[in-house]
């Protein structure tokens, strides 16, 4: 099975490809797409699609539509990268596999508070990755599992962090691309997964406290450990997913 991995920026893409011998060496094929470039390593195509849900959705859709040029069709899409976490449940440098990919700020502000897009009577605000796959990847990598929120504006205050947790109890992290990747994957009929390495705490911005290098290293380790699970996973053999 072929796996499409979509990150936001090249440093995240390179952290993933290091797990397959890329970025710092090894053999890879590069495939040009509109506005982006796939880095192909065996069964894995890794793409830096841009920051935010719109760029992520567009890049994922282009890659899936171009899949006919690949040796085999894609059977799985993975949104991957670093992100902020609601610590101390998920400390810096730890890994998270999303069991829910949630559009946390897609909807409307009202006098009574925020309404998700589903409360407005259209759209959707959540995707659920295959539960069996979530369990297998978490077991292989030692990751925590829980909802990961997709936001268009990164949280920068304690008040906003508290509001997100109040609206989404149990959320482990926030990032900017997962829901966009999931939307494109769902429209193509391909299962989706989200994997995040924790670089910072959600809340007041303190760049000096961020551990981006540690998170990128954790992302490399995660894909090194999870690659056999991802490549070997087959949705037809896991009806629960």
Automatic annotation (TrEMBL):
Keyword Iron: no
Annotated GO MF terms: hydrolase activity
Matching InterPro entries: FL_hydrolase_MqnB, Nucleoside_phosphorylase_d, Nucleoside_phosphorylase_sf
Assigned keywords, A-Z: Hydrolase, Menaquinone biosynthesis
Catalysed reactions listed for this entry: futalosine + H2O = dehypoxanthine futalosine + hypoxanthine
EC number: 3.2.2.26
Span of domain Nucleoside phosphorylase: 42-208
Pathway named in the protein's UniProt entry: Quinol/quinone metabolism; menaquinone biosynthesis
Top-level taxon of the source organism: Bacteria
Protein family per UniProt: Belongs to the PNP/UDP phosphorylase family. Futalosine hydrolase subfamily.
Purpose: Catalyzes the hydrolysis of futalosine (FL) to dehypoxanthine futalosine (DHFL) and hypoxanthine, a step in the biosynthesis of menaquinone (MK, vitamin K2).
Family matches, as PANTHER family: 5'-METHYLTHIOADENOSINE/S-ADENOSYLHOMOCYSTEINE NUCLEOSIDASE, FUTALOSINE HYDROLASE
The protein, known as: Futalosine hydrolase
Gene expressing this chain: mqnB
């Amino acid at each position: 099975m072929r796996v499409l991995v979509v990150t936001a920026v090249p440093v995240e893409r390179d952290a993933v490809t290091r797990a397959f011998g890329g970025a710092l060496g090894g053999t890879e094929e590069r495939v040009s797409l509109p506005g982006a470039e796939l880095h192909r390593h065996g069964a894995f195509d890794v793409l830096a699609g841009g920051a935010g849900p719109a760029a992520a959705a567009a890049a994922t859709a282009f890659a899936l539509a171009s899949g006919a040029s690949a040796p085999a069709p894609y059977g799985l899409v993975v949104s991957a990268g670093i992100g902020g976490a609601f610590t101390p449940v998920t400390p810096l440098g730890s890994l998270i596999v999303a069991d829910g990919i949630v559009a946390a700020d897609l909807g409307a502000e009202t006098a009574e508070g925020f309404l998700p897009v589903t409360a407005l009577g259209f759209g959707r605000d959540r995707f659920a990755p295959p539960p069996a796959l979530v369990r297998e990847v978490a077991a292989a990598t030692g990751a925590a599992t829980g909802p990961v929120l997709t936001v268009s504006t990164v949280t920068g205050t304690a008040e906003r962090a508290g509001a997100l947790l109040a609206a989404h109890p149990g959320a482990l992290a926030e990032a900017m691309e997962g829901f966009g990747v999931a939307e494109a994957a769902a429209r193509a009929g391909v299962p989706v997964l989200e994997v995040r390495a924790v670089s910072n705490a959600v809340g007041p911005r303190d760049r000096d406290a961020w551990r981006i290098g540690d998170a990128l290293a954790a992302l490399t380790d995660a894909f090194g450990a999870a690659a056999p699970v991802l490549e070997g996973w087959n949705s037809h053999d896991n009806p629960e997913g």
